[in-house]
Specification:
alpha/beta; UDP-N-acetylmuramoyl-L-alanine:D-glutamate ligase; nine-stranded mixed β-sheet; 10 helices; 26% strand
């Protein structure tokens, strides 16, 4: 089972019409997006998160209950509001974010039970909570508990410097978390922020995936590495594309034996995940346009002809 832990929030996707900007509310949050996608692909999935005891939080809980998760634990915090992410799209579907997130609920997650951890093969942790000291402590404690049970820790960098005082502080905080993970996802831009030397030297023993946008993706692990191109699509909205990609990765790794996995198998995982991410850009929102496993396989077979 994949246990996803972290932020569930409302993506407020803006659109300008006649001089006014209107916002459409969509369910979001990177680890929640990953959970929804992995479940749709066929994995056993649990999600653990926190929202405010407000109308947006209640709508997110209702939405989550319809995803068919094998386990669902969302705390409704009476003292905090639900986190909002305002999203602006450019003409190419690329997005920029502005978070409404001061003392909101996403970092106030209750610790997963020992019973839940016993069922996990992979615990995937979201990064938004790292901007608060309590969030860093939560991740450190959860990673320690997982290690005792030989559960793999997954971490998506999903770098958001605007939720920290500055980029330097953000990098320093992330470097407390990255060594705890076994599986890590970076975007190409994020590898430039952290530097190739740091990733190659300090994260050498981690299975690292890097998304390269329209160029595809690559992986590196110890002295091994691989690359796979992606498929061409007419992009509408890139929101959640990286999450769909990573859900594809974790879905495949959950079925694999990482102690014996080969380079060819990891390259195949890249090809599968690339299609997951690409097809998710065909409509607006991170979850509404997730592809089915049948759609992914059809496109994947076509791309290999």
């Amino acid at each position: 089972m994949i246990v996803c832990v972290g932020e569930i929030l409302a993506d407020m996707i803006g659109e300008e019409k006649n001089g006014s900007i209107t916002y459409e509310q969509k369910a979001g949050g990177a680890p929640f997006n990953v959970a929804c996608a992995a479940k749709l692909f066929g994995a056993k999935v649990a999600f653990v998160g926190s929202v405010g005891d407000d109308i947006i939080g209640k709508s997110l809980v209702s939405f989550a209950k319809k995803r068919g998760f094998d386990r669902l634990y969302i705390d409704e915090n009476e003292n905090r509001n639900t986190t909002l992410a305002f999203v602006a799209l450019d003409s190419h579907g690329e997005r920029s974010f502005c978070f409404f997130r001061k003392n909101t609920a996403d970092a106030y997650i209750k610790n997963p039970s020992a019973t839940l951890l016993k069922t996990a093969n992979i615990i995937h942790i979201g990064s938004l909570m790292t901007s608060e000291k309590r969030g860093v402590r939560f991740i450190q404690k959860l990673a320690e508990r997982a290690k005792r049970r030989n559960v793999k820790i997954s971490f998506d960098v999903n770098f958001r410097s605007d939720i920290f005082k500055n980029e330097r502080e953000a990098v320093k905080t992330y470097k407390q978390i990255l060594p705890l993970a076994d599986i890590i996802k970076f975007s190409e831009d994020e590898t430039e922020i952290f530097g190739a030397r740091y990733i190659e030297r300090e994260l050498k023993d981690k299975l690292v995936f890097v998304t390269l946008g329209s160029k595809g993706s690559r992986w590196a692990w110890k002295d091994r590495s691989g690359y796979a191109p992606t498929v061409k699509v007419k992009c509408v909205d890139t929101t959640g594309a990286g999450d769909a990609f990573y859900a594809g990765v974790l879905y495949k790794l959950d079925q694999a034996d990482m102690s014996t996995i080969t380079d060819d198998e990891l390259n195949e995982i890249l090809r599968f995940a690339n299609v997951c991410g690409a097809l998710n850009t065909l409509g607006k929102g991170a979850i509404d346009c997730l592809p089915t496993i049948e759609q992914i396989q059809t496109r994947l077979n076509g791309s290999q002809d």
